Every structure is written in C-alpha cells, then in structure tokens.
Amino acid sequence: MIETQHLSKLYSRGLYALRDLTISVAKGEFVFLTGPSGAGKSTFLRMLLLQERPSEGEIFVNGHNLATLSRSDIQEYRRGIGFIFQDFKLIPSRTVLENVSFVPEVLGVPAAQQKRRAFQVLKWVGLQHRMNALPNDLSGGEQQRVAIARALASEPVLLLADEPTGNLDPDLSLEIMNLLREVNAGGTTVLVATHDRELIRLVGRRTVTLDAGKVVEVA
Amino acid sequence: MRAIDYALREGWASLWRSRGSSAFAILAIALAMIVLGTLLLVTWNIERILVQWASAAEFSVYLRDDASSEQRGAIEMTIDSSGVVERREFISKADAIGRFRREFAELASLTDSFEGNPFPASIEVRIRPAAEQDGRTAALVRQVSGLAGVADVRYDREWLGRLASGLAAVRGAGLVLAIVMAMAAALTVASVVRLGMHARRQELDIMQLVGSPIAFIRGPFVAEGVLQGGLGAVTALAFLWLGQGLISALWGTELSVLFDGGSIAFLPARLSAALVTGGMAVGGVGGFAASRHAI
Questions:
Q1: Closest C-alpha to A82, from A168, A169, A184
Q2: In this complex, is the C-beta atom of A136 within 8 Å of any C-beta atom belonging to chain B?
Q3: Can you name the residues that pair with A31 across neighbouring β-strands?
Q4: CB 3.0 to 4.6 Å from A210: which of A39, A198, A218, B170, for a disulfide?
Q5: What are phi and psi of B87, to 5 degrees?
Q6: How far B229 CA sits from the closest chain A CA (Å)?
Q7: A88 with A144: CB under 8 angstroms?
Q8: What is the dihedral of CA B172, B174, B177, B179, to 10 degrees?
Q9: How far does A202 lie from chain B, in Å, by closest CA?
Q10: What pLDDT was estimated at residue B158?
C-alpha cells in the first residue's frame, strides 16, 4: 500500500526532517509510527497527503507515484485516504451530522446518499444519538470519534492518524485505538503516528520508530 | 450539475454571511454599471432620434435673389430627374418671410424693421429613404450645389453625420470609463470574496484533504462574485429607471419636441439583459481571481 524509497526532506535551514527513509506498509496492515517530537512522523504523514513534497526519494501509495500527480490527480488520490488529527479539525459551525456528511457532499455524492452514508458511519462509531449536536458540545473522545466517522465517510483504502489520542486520557485513547482496529479489520490500511509507547504496547502491532528523520527500529 | 448547485448554495450563503462587505462590492459594480447604463441609455435614445430624423431626411436649395426663372427651371429639372426625390416644394421669398412670422410669432415684429425681404427663395426637397443610404442623395446635393442660381444647399445629413460621429466618440470615451470602473469593481469583488475565504479556511483545508474536486473548492467563490455582480447590475438598472422617470417628469415636455411627441425610452430588454450579464461577468472575474487563493 505504501512504499518509500530513500525519502528525504531537507528544510531551508539545512535541517533534515526525514533522511533516507525506506519503509513499506502492506495492504490491510495496521502500523504504528513512533518516535520523539521532531522525529519526522508528522512530516511523513503530510507527505503521504501531498501537503509537502520530498526533497529526495519517491513515494508510492496504492500504485500512485506521488511525484507524478497533477493537481486534479492529487485531489482524486486523496479521495482514497482518510485522515485524523490530534486537534480533530471539525467545523465548529456545523452539526456532527453535517461535519460527517460534508465529505460526501464536497465529493459530489447525491444529497440523499450523503446523509445515509453519514448516518451509517456515525452509528458505527456510536454517535448517532449526538448527530444534531455541535462539536463544541461534545467531549474530546466524542469529537475524535466524529473525526473518525468523517474520515470513514469517503470509504478510504488508507487511514492516516496523526497523534489521534494526543488530547485524550488513557481510557479514551484505548477506546479510539479499538475503533481504529475495527476499521483495520474491515480491510482498511491504518497508519498511526503516536509517541504513546504504552498505547502501542497495549494494541500490539508492527511499529516503525523514527529518530531525527531516520528509521531506528522496526518491531 | 451538482458542482454548480453546490457553488450557488455556498456562494449565496457566503454572500449573506458577509453581507456588510458584500454591499461594498455590489455598490462598486452598481456604480460601474450605472456609468455604462447611462451611456447606453443616452446613446440608445439619441440613436432613436437619429433614426427618426434620418427617415425624414431632406435638403434645401437656397436660390440667389437674382436667379432667373430659367435657372430655377434647370435646378428643378435636375432634382426631378435624379430619381431620389419623393417630393419638392418651391418656397418663394414671400412664403419664407410669411413662414418665419408664423413659426416665430414673438419675433414677427422684428421683420417690420427689415429693409426689403432678407429671406431667400428656396426649394425644399424630401428624399426617398432608400436614396439616403446608397449615396445618391449626396451626389445630387453636390450636383445641385454647382448649378447657376444656387446660393447654398443645406443637407441635414451632414450634421446628422457629425452628430453620429460625436455619438461614437462619446460612446468610446464612456466605454473606456466603464471598463476602468469595471476593473476596479472586479478588484473590490476579489477582495471581498477573499475576506469571506478566511472565514471558510478550515472548510477549505478539509475539502482539499478529502480530495474534493477543484470545481467544488473554487466554484463557490466564482458563484459569489457572479451573484454580487448580478445584484450590482440589477441595482444599477433600478437607479437608471428611477433617473429616467425623474428626467421625464422634469423635462418631459421639452424632450417630447426631440422625440416627435414621444419621450425618453428605458433600455430595451436585450440591453438590460446585456447590462446584467456584464455585471455578472465582472463579478465572476473578481470571484475567479479570488478563488485562485482557495487552493
């Protein structure tokens, strides 16, 4: 699903965010990306979302060479990827249902299907009863579940999560991880960037450890 | 189709959300369209008068006081044989002074102080409309001007032509002014749309990340510009209509002389539609320019 070849990201100050990174993630796999702050985890995820371009090396995702994609190809490629962030990135003026149905709406899905799909994923994350609430009325765990529902609304083949439990307590963190495991069980490839070693130990999946932009351990 | 529907819905919602700043953009477009609309209204009405006057074109051949009856006969024969004349009428010196006294009654007393009759005899020639366009009238005027016994020939086409040229110059200058104002309006629209864009930054980021088609991302901003432009142009039309009504109410009687008993007409549907389309295009260009910053 993900294949990188000698991937490097050099910033203008001569600082490497990633250095000669060669890793692969198989289709249907659940992988943790860990390491201390500044190790390059978020940079790597931003590259997978094409928010940043590598200085050197190549990235292949689901058969796409990301270096060769045009602007419209990038949009098409992103439709196959779900994303979750530490700060949820929900739209505060829209209800839970609207936040989730926003994705199929802006992908051009017919109106009736938008709501149906949004309701399905909200039910799946157990938040159908809060669908008319605004994000600010929800707890942190609930907000992250809405973010997961939104990520799943486009039925992605790859789910990227950047510190998805960074703002949550240990119990809620485990709950979110269990949800991601269920997503993975449905066939979606999941890549989670986290510095929470305890959580990784509890979930127990393949873990790639980065430090100063380099792979230092694969376990 | 869904992209257009989405763009219009979101464009309208954004316009409503930022209705204070949108009002500035609408006003800027309205001002540009008022300039263009006034220009259209004036030139359209002057053209109506010109068409009216052109259809009643005639020329007058003024005879020298010492012109003989043979010379007058030769002039009339030249006119009759030209094939462009609908009718002609000889106005003697006595008829001319009599007409002056009738038509300018308040000045009639002046003629009592004249030594003799200063008004020349003339032949008034009404021309067939077709001959106006193919240049035969101009040729006849040149021919008659050179005949013996002719003091002067007044051909109203000459000043109609000058008026038409003047009108073209006014139209050109007005168009340049309207284009400059339209560009300023487009810039205002672009700035206002960009302001609204900041309010939707988070939505735009999410749209990009989920792979929303570019038409869905940029479309609402173009639609917002088009809506602002359309509203600006409709506002301009309303002001023009009020202005035309006011002018008709204040100077209707004086203007009816020019319009042969009629009055100033408002822009016809096709010109009004063109004005609205123009406003929408100006707004659309502003919105399109702003939408480049959405990605």
A1: A184
A2: no
A3: A191, A206
A4: A39
A5: -160, 160
A6: 25
A7: yes
A8: -70
A9: 30
A10: 65
CA distances (Å), origin B242, targets A170, B25, B249: 70, 22, 10
Phi, psi dihedrals of residue B128, rounded to the nearest 5°: -70, 135
* pTM score, whole prediction: 0.68
To the nearest 10°, the Cα dihedral for A71, A77, A81, A86? -20
Cα–Cα distance, A76 to B2 (Å, whole number): 17
| Residues 71-110 in A contacting B (C-alpha not used; CB under 8 Å) | 71-72, 74-81, 83, 89, 91, 102-103, 105-108, 110
Q: What is the pLDDT of residues B63-73, one digit of tens each?
A: 998 989 999 99
Query: CB atoms < 10 A from the CB of A79, how many?
Result: 17
Say if the Cβ atoms of B210 and A154 lie within 8 Å. Answer: yes
Is-contact B178 B278, C-beta < 8 A?
A: no
Q: How far apart are CA A42 and CA A62, in angstroms?
A: 20
- For residues B255 and B158, the answer to whether their CB atoms sit within 8 Å is no
B206, A49 Cβ separation under 8 angstroms: no
* Whether ipTM exceeds 0.85: no
Residues of A in contact with B216 (CB under 8 A): 106-108
Count Cβ neighbours within 10 Å for each residue of B252-268 and write b for 16 or more, e otherwise: eeebeebeeeeebebbe
Q: What spatial distance separates the first Cα and last Cα of chain A, rounded to whole Å?
A: 19
Give me the DSSP letters along B50-107.
HHHHHHT-EEEEEEPTT--HHHHHHHHHHHHHTS-EEEEEEE-HHHHHHHHHHHTGGG
pLDDT digits (tens, 9 = 90+) for A146-204: 888 888 888 888 999 888 887 777 777 888 888 888 888 888 899 999 888 888 888 78
> In angstroms, rounded to a whole number, what is the distance separating the alpha carbons of residues B157 and A9?
79
A 3-62 residues inside an 8 A Cβ radius of B:
49, 51
Measured at the CA of B174, the angle between CA B168 and CA B179, to 5 degrees, comes to 125
